[in-house]
């Protein structure tokens, strides 16, 4: 697993010639699952409300961006990630997805592929790792990367010219926008999560260290490694409960280092290495029609998709 390069203030040597959109697809499937009414069923009578919501998202996204390079990264490594080997309790607090949602995830991957997007999923690497690995690989080719997600963890990838786009809220930011959201610089996000932990992913962090304390510690020491090497200085900081913080850090130093490894997005996942491999393909309209028929997607949405995804509209 590679470490993320520090944030850079200087512009890249060459002007980016294309934009690459990296979609955290599972996030938008889950959003649709929770927001769409359970009134949509496929031809077998199984619920497909999340698929219908995800289809609307994809249509809107393609129509708005006219993306030439686009990746939809899905999570299928919820219990088989390399992080589970490091820490078996990783994400163990999550309930398994119900069977009806698992079926919908399969449909959503089919739908993204039918739309011409490059679909990535891996049994050992999560969507975050696939996105990070593609971003780093494509930076060498001059592509400007936009991560389509609201997940705060992606702040660690916002170096060079990469951006993050919270599509639902319409907010978009680069490395300079991370401090306003987390209180730390982009290159400190991993260490910030190592200190605070992450309840959603069951990353333990250091008990009793919250976001404000973590931000203050990193503002003073710069990094987790420096902080742990200079723990004797912590009691003398002008931070509330500094002495107690020092004791917590001392007794949980190894846990902080473990959390740092868990929070770090891997940059060495097996992903396509050339921009041409990430071009949005023209949709196979026969396959798309068959899928829409199975999903009972209405005629107005189908016609919109046909017009938007006809061969001359894609790369």
Helix fraction?
40-55%
Give the mean pLDDT: 91
CATH class of the largest domain: Alpha Beta
For this structure, the CATH topology of the largest domain is: Rossmann fold
- Order of strands across the main sheet: 3-2-1-4-5-6
| Proportion of residues in extended strands | 5-15%
At the fourth CATH level, what is the homologous superfamily of the largest domain?
5'-nuclease
The assigned structural class equals alpha/beta
The helix-strand sequence is EHHEHHEHEEEHHHHHHHH
Shape, per Cα inertia axes: elongated
Low-confidence runs (pLDDT<50, min 5 residues)?
A: 3-16
Number of separate domains:
2
Radius of gyration: 21 Å
Strand runs, count: 6
What is the second-level CATH architecture of the largest domain? 3-Layer(aba) Sandwich
Span between termini = 33 Å
Helix segment tally = 13
Largest sheet: 6 strands, mixed
Describe this structure in words.
With 315 residues, the chain is α/β, with parallel strands linked by helices. The chain folds into 2 domains: 207 residues, 3-Layer(aba) Sandwich (Rossmann fold), CATH 3.40.50; 78 residues, DNA polymerase, domain 1, CATH 1.10.150. It has 13 helices and 6 strands. Strands 3-2-1-4-5-6 form a 6-stranded mixed sheet, with helices on both faces. A hairpin with a 4-residue loop joins strand 5 and strand 6. Helix 1 packs across helix 2, helix 2 runs parallel beside helix 4 and helix 2 packs parallel to helix 13. The chain is elongated. The N terminus is likely disordered.
């Amino acid at each position: 697993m590679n470490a993320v390069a520090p944030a850079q203030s200087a512009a890249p040597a060459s002007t980016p010639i294309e934009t690459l959109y990296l979609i955290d697809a599972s996030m938008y499937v889950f959003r649709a699952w929770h927001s769409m009414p359970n009134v949509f069923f496929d031809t077998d009578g199984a619920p497909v409300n999340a698929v219908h919501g995800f289809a609307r998202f994809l249509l809107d996204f393609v129509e708005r961006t006219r993306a030439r390079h686009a990746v939809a990264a899905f999570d299928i490594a919820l219990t088989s990630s390399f992080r589970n080997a490091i820490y078996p309790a990783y994400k163990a607090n999550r309930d398994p997805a119900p069977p009806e949602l698992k079926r919908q995830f399969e449909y959503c991957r089919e739908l993204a592929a039918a739309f011409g997007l490059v679909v990535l999923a891996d049994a050992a690497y999560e969507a975050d790792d696939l996105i990070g690995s593609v971003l780093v690989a494509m930076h060498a080719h001059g592509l400007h990367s936009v991560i389509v997600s609201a997940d705060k963890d992606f702040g660690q990838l916002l170096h060079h010219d990469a951006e993050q786009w919270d599509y639902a809220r319409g907010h978009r930011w680069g490395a300079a926008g991370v401090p306003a959201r987390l209180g730390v610089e982009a290159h400190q996000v991993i260490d910030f999560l190592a200190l605070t932990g992450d309840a959603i992913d069951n990353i333990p962090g250091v008990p009793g260290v919250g976001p404000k304390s973590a931000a203050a510690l990193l503002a003073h020491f710069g990094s987790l490694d420096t902080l742990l090497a200079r723990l004797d200085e912590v009691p003398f900081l002008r931070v509330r409960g500094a002495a107690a913080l020092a004791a917590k850090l001392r007794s949980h130093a190894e846990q902080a280092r473990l959390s740092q490894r868990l929070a770090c997005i891997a940059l060495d996942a097996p992903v396509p290495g050339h921009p041409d491999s990430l071009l949005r393909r023209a949709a196979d309209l026969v396959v798309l029609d068959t899928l829409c028929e199975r999903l009972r997607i209405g005629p107005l949405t189908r016609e919109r998709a046909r017009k938007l995804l006809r061969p001359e509209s894609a790369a």
